[in-house]
Amino acid sequence: MGMVITTCTFAQQPGDLDLNFGTDGISTVDANSQGLDDGANMITVQSDGGLLVVGRIKTGTFVTESDMLIARYSTDGIVDPQFGQSGFTITDLGGEFESLFGIYEKPDGKILAGGSSNQSGNSQQTLIQYNENGLIDQNFGNNGVIYTSATLSSASITSMVSDSDGNVLTTGSGNGNILVVKFENNGTLYNSFGTSGVAIHDLGLIESGYEMLLQTDGKILVTGTQNESGNPENGIVVRLESDGSLDLTFNGTGWVDLALSENTDRSTDLALLPDGRILVTGIVPNASVTALEIFAVRLMPDGSYDNTFGTNGIARYDIGAGDDYANDVILQPDGKAIIGGYENDGNDNNFCLIRINEDGTLDQTFGDNGVVITEVSTDNDRIASMALQPDGKLVVAGSARIGTNDDIALARYHTGLNLSV
């Protein structure tokens, strides 16, 4: 089914595919066998070890015609036929472009998913709650659905997290600004956060939030981009107080412009170290400005660069002959970090993982000198999201072009971690 460019066929070394997952370590599925483009945007591990994946499925000839998709797999990458319809639930809310980007399993087993739906020509933040069996929970919101941004232009949910009380926070963009919304467990807006549950921050230009996480003190970190219309993007990191206001102890303004290039640089994910330092990953043009490469930046808790990481706080990784792209980062318990995305070898895109040490150097014990390239198909393979399973193995989700259409693609890798109790 796929080819892995690694040095061991027994799948025992860090970076090797786990051959007990799917078929030879890889699972590709055409959702509901409809022969349409589909793909995963996020994967999470459930409390029972199952895997939940959210994304989209194309519904027409135009790129923007898609519906929301949620799927469940067993721990070992087999589609769960008891979930939804043969393992999948496709949700059409009547909008032109609909997709899910975030997912959260509640303590009671219900599943909250977030994304966007284009309603009457305006994209809206959308929350949907599903029962454990994949059917929409009709007792949540309005027949299972909540729209939160009808008064905002081009609003979307790109990431969501939960706090210790079961409240849910989402980030994305609205009116060209960073948008963070907080909900109570039942889906109602958390009125003491921002303005009636909604915090919008205009940082002076056009901003978008991509990913978020919560600090242990309740403060909120968001990474994304800022740009002036028609000009290159810059990666940014924003920190909010627990009430949704900007945290002015962070860089004196509440946000940091990474400004890694005069051309486009985009921060796509972040991870929080136990001591409060912040690892940010994304893409930036390479030295010759001929292609994109992956970057990692580490910030101190106050927003300044951590000069013990990389070169003056910045590390860059040029992997393939063409563009490299980072979509997700996971911090391992041993302090190493895995960055997932894709690389272009000059012909097509392939799954790409790199593992870095605490100082930003490539971990030579992982894959081929710190890099793992997996060719799932002969065309367009991309990792969108990753998760560590309880035993320390890494599962990734994204898409791969099988034949003439994109399919949901999952894979599992050994990491060398042994987290089993």
Keywords:
421 residues, mainly beta, globular
Unreliably modeled segments: 1-9
Question: What is the strand arrangement across the widest sheet?
Answer: 1-26-25-24-23
The beta-strand count equals 29
The outline comes out as globular
- Please state the structural category: mainly beta
- First CA to last CA: what distance? 33 Å
Helix fraction, binned, reads under 10%
| Radius of gyration over C-alpha positions, nearest whole angstrom | 20 Å
Order of helices and strands: EEEEEEEEEEEEEEEEEEEEEEEEEEEEE
Number of helical stretches of at least 4 residues: 0
Can you walk me through this structure?
The protein is an all-beta fold. It is globular. The chain contains no helices and 29 strands. Residues 1-9 have low confidence and may be disordered. A five-stranded antiparallel β-sheet has the order 1-26-25-24-23, with no helix packed on it. The protein has a four-stranded antiparallel β-sheet with strand order 2-29-28-27, with no helix packed on it. It starts with a strand and ends in an 8-residue tail after the last strand.
